[in-house]
Design a protein that fits this description.
230 residues, mainly alpha, 0% strand
């Protein structure tokens, strides 16, 4: 029950004034605004083209400044190629999707992998390592590209659950690791002798099997959905 702030007499909850001294009643829940908004504020979404222009200017300015510094400080050592290649790779990864939202997934993945390839090639130019680029880095990029394309095709081709998507992703990681050790062994020893990649592949299989069991058993699937909001 509320009380009068002047004389302390007990009042009715809806009273506007004290019945004894006529002091106006104070209702903080009605008179004062709430500390927190009752409705979420509407935020105007930022323009994707404006964000793309901002990111492009930032990456371009960093590349230009590093290129000029390279010409002034160490013109014989092209260290600025590393920064320029990284800026180009980040532009393809983050700015290109902002400019073209309707690009096919295969084109976007091709552009991402090509950006990585250009960056690694610029590193090879700076270190005089064209041999390891063509005989090691390029085959690894090819395996990565094929692995990503296969995974995207399997995920986009059918409507799959989260458990199935996780299992396919883990399988793609295991295949890439096997291909990675194959390329390294062929480059260094001209012979494939799988060791650590088999450990990773077995670990991937050990993760895939429980996921498939949970996917096939309805009770386990419902329990996973409730606990992990899948």
């Amino acid at each position: 029950m509320p009380y009068c702030v002047n004389c302390g007499v007990e009042m009715n909850p809806g009273a506007q004034a004290c019945p004894l001294c006529q002091t106006p009643a104070w209702h903080p829940e009605q008179d004062e605004p709430s500390y927190f908004p009752t409705t979420p504020a509407q935020v105007t979404p930022a323009s994707k083209r404006a964000l793309a222009a901002l990111l492009s200017s930032m990456l371009g300015s960093v590349s230009l400044c590093c290129g000029l510094l390279n010409l002034v400080l160490k013109p014989g050592h092209p260290w600025s190629l590393y920064v320029i290649g990284a800026a180009l790779m980040l532009w393809v990864w983050f700015v290109l999707p902002l400019l073209s939202r309707r690009l096919p997934i295969f084109f976007r993945l091709s552009a991402d992998v090509a950006a990585v390839g250009v960056y690694v090639y610029l590193i090879s130019l700076g270190t005089d390592g064209q041999e390891w680029f063509f005989h090691l880095a390029l085959p690894i990029l090819g395996i990565l590209c094929a692995d990503v394309f296969l995974l995207s095709f399997l995920l986009q081709g059918h409507r799959r659950s989260m458990l199935s998507s996780m299992a396919l992703t883990i399988a793609a990681i295991g295949l890439f690791v096997l291909g990675l050790e194959f390329c390294i062994d062929r480059y260094l020893h001209s012979l494939w002798h799988p060791t650590w990649s088999l450990v990773v592949a077995v670990a991937c299989i050990a993760l895939i099997v429980p996921l498939r069991i949970v996917r096939r058993v309805p009770s386990l699937r419902e329990e996973a959905r409730r606990r992990f909001h899948m």
